Structure formats: structure tokens, C-alpha cells
């Protein structure tokens, strides 16, 4: 991935042009969307490039695969006193490396994962789309747009809210270009206004293969959403991700930022105009990422992000209106790639500060997590209905929400309790119970994450490694948060247990953002009260 030329040196605040663009930057309010259409014409859509499709192989293993121990910037003296002694800079550094280990497509000279090589170079070739890049979903090699776009949105939000923490950790540039990898793919997956490729790879076929992505030879079908077969959830979530990304890149690369926002505007129009739960258009996804909660939360979420990115009044009206009419003012207790209604409350409270409705709803839901929510004996927030699969993913997402609630200004009455509960969840993941649940970090970390490419020893047939638990993964998948314990705090570090030891891009998204938020608090007023 090539580096972008910055317009100016990034600064702690001006790097992201505050939270909004200048008034009038994208035209006057226009409910009939003529302004949106006019702006969409300002960006140049990349055309299909057949070069990679002419390659003989779809992948190429690295020439010198090896483990390398990452380096990180030591936190300032005294900061660890507020982080239970944990080096959060190390956690941030390694979590970003996890996303780099999940990269698909051609890897450049700046690849920092020496055991990864080029892969999926022919993805999309049969439909004349450049879908070779993006992130692999989990320990497998499928590209699912809905969880990937959600991960990019949540990571981008963490950058916007806690960028001084990323800057202090020395990882600001790395995290920005980390999400660019997925943003590029989301734009490539949107070759025309009403077409979006929401999945690459057959989940069942992919899961039957235990090996590295560089050596895959299976068929990798592409699944498309159109006006005849639409899908609101992934298209709206992609709009949210691209809108959030456009804010980050506004002062780094104005042309790229414009392209991000242009795609976001078109995708939202597509998602909103042709409403349909996407698993009905792509039945193959239902086994893996069915939209259980429906698409209302994605429409509310995306409308808020488009207002934040564009400041077009149409989206202010849409975000506020949908919040009521689509019943986004009510929320379930979960936060995930499927259900982001709690995050909608928080985001609306941030961007519409003058309206107490959103703050009150944030307080209601955060108070419920403190007072009513189930916990394991050792203090992990645990919902028996959903937490059995990826318990730490849910706990980390709740931590992200709670930290955001604790940071609202003026403070909510129970903001201190929100902070303490959030830190308890993150501490659990990092080692409060006597072991770490983050690969390559802390005391007794997982050594057998359910992850194909990191498990394989170069030159060996590793097809049996999915069930072989006699040895650790050959390469360390630094920074990956594993699924975690059950409701009784029981956990076994076993690669064959794909519930407890699954890793996934959405697992780390809320976790990484919350870790940055915790560091932000430890940095004091220069970060925590910046927003």
C-alpha cells in the first residue's frame, strides 16, 4: 500500500478538521437529493484494472516467513498508574498488526507481517471488479462486507474520538492507513451507484480448507447486491464506514476524502431506496452473518455519519427523523456487527449535543449495564443469549460504549461508574483474572487462536492443524483478541474450540477503540476532554 502525501503535518486537533467540515462545503440543504447527486459527480470512480487478473496464480507465499517481535513506544511515566500497570501502547500497536495480518490482496514493501504474502489476486476477476484487497473476516478467508464495514466504522470512530492517544502511542499513521486498506476495498466493491459486492468466497467451501490464503485454489464466488436483489444492511454500513473515513482523510488527501464521501452518499441512497434484508438476496450469507436485527439500525447509523461527514441538512433531518420513525430510540442490550442501536444513541448524543433526548437514552442504557446486566463471577459483562460466542467481543463493545458515555460533556450523573465498568471489561481481557486473552500480550496469552494462516508452518501440510492441539500456532498472531470465556469464566486455549478461540476483525474493533479511550483517560485533560 503506497503512502499518501499529506497536505501538512498532522496536528493533534487539526489533523481531522475538528468533527465537521466547513458550513456550505457541500451545498445547501436539499431534501430532493439534487445536492447529493451533484456532489457524487465530483469524484472519479476507479475503473476496473485487469492487470492482477492476468497473473498465473492467485497468491504468492512470502519468501522469508518468520516471527518478529514488534516494538512499541513506552508510555509516559505515571500513565501506567492509571492503566493497572498495563502498557496500552503495546496493546494498540499489536492490535493494529492483527489487522495487517488479515490483509488480502497484493502486499507492498511496507508489509510488516513477514509470514504473509500476496493472496486472492483474482477475487472479482470474473465479474470485472478489483476485489483482491480488503480484510479476511476471521480465522478463515472469506470477505464479508457487513462485519468488515462495521469494523472500519468503529475503528474510524475511535480514531476521531481518541486520536491524541493514537498519536502519543506512535501509531496514528499506522491506524489511519490500517483502515484505508478496507476503505479501498469498500469503494472497489461499489462499481456503480446501485451495485455493491457484499461477499467474496463461499463460507462452507472456505471452512473446509485449513491452509494459508497464499495457497488457496478453491473457487471464490462473488455475491452482488442490485436494485433487483438489494441488501440494506451492508450497503448502509459501508456508507457509514466511508463517511467516517472521509472525515479522517480530509486534510491528508482531499481527493481521496471526496471519493470516500461520494461513494458513501450513493451507497446510502441505494440502501435507503431499495430496502431489503440482505440475507434474502444472498441466502449463502445467512449461515454466517444473517441480519437478525434488521436494517433500521444501519439506516439510523449511516444517516448520522453522513451528517457528521457532510453537514448537509438533509442528513440531519434524516438522522433525527429515522431515529424516531425506525424506532432507533429503543435498543437491545447487544452491540455487534448486527446490532449497533446502542452506538446510534451515543453517536447522536455526540453530534446533536443540544438535544437531551439522545443523552438521556445513553444514560438509560449505560445505567442498565451497571444495574441490571448479568456478569460472570469474575466480573465480565455476559448476556447468556448472545455472549457464549465471542464473550470478550461483546464486553469490549460495551466498554467502548461506556467510555463514550463517560466522556459526554456535560458529564452524565453516573459517568464515573461507566468508566469503572468499562475499565473492568478491558482489564479482564488484558489479564486481571490471571491470564491474557490477547495473543502475544501479557501473562499466559493464547497460543492457539483458531486462525489458519498463523497456524501453518512453511513447507508443511497443515490441513490437520485445525484439530491438532498438541502445539501452538507456528506464527504469533499479535494483538488478536480471542472469543473468550463462558459464563462461568472457564476458558481453554485450544485451536479446535472455535467458539472460545475464534478471532475476527469485528472482535478487535471495539476493543482497540476502547483501549485507545482508556489511554486517553490516562493522558488526562489533553486528551479526555478534547471532544
> What is the tally of helical segments?
18
**Topology as H/E string?**
HHEHHEHEHHHHHHHHHHHHH
**Termini gap:** 31 Å
The major beta sheet can be summarized as: 3 strands, antiparallel
Number of strands: 3
| CATH fold descriptor | Glycosyltransferase
Query: How helical, in percent, are the residues?
Result: 40-55%
**Unreliable stretches:** 1-32
Radius of gyration: 21 Å
CATH class: Mainly Alpha
The proportion of residues in beta strands is under 5%
Strand order of the largest sheet: 1-2-3
Mean pLDDT: 91
Overall 3D form: globular
Give the domain tally. 1
Instruction: Please identify, by name, the CATH architecture.
Output: Alpha/alpha barrel
Q: Based on helices, strands and strand pairing, what is the structural class?
A: mainly alpha
Protein name: Endoglucanase
Active site: 450, 493, 502
Keywords: Carbohydrate metabolism, Cellulose degradation, Glycosidase, Hydrolase, Polysaccharide degradation
Pfam family, one: Glyco_hydro_9
Characterization of this structure:
This protein has about 525 residues and is mainly alpha-helical. The chain has a single domain, classed as Alpha/alpha barrel (Glycosyltransferase), CATH 1.50.10. The chain has 18 helices and 3 strands. Strands 1-2-3 form a 3-stranded antiparallel beta sheet. The protein is globular, with a radius of gyration of 21 Å. The protein starts with about 35 loop residues before the first helix and ends with a helix. The N terminus is likely disordered. This is Endoglucanase. Its EC number is 3.2.1.4. It catalyses: Endohydrolysis of (1->4)-beta-D-glucosidic linkages in cellulose, lichenin and cereal beta-D-glucans. Keywords: Carbohydrate metabolism, Cellulose degradation, Glycosidase, Hydrolase, Polysaccharide degradation. GO terms for molecular function: cellulase activity.
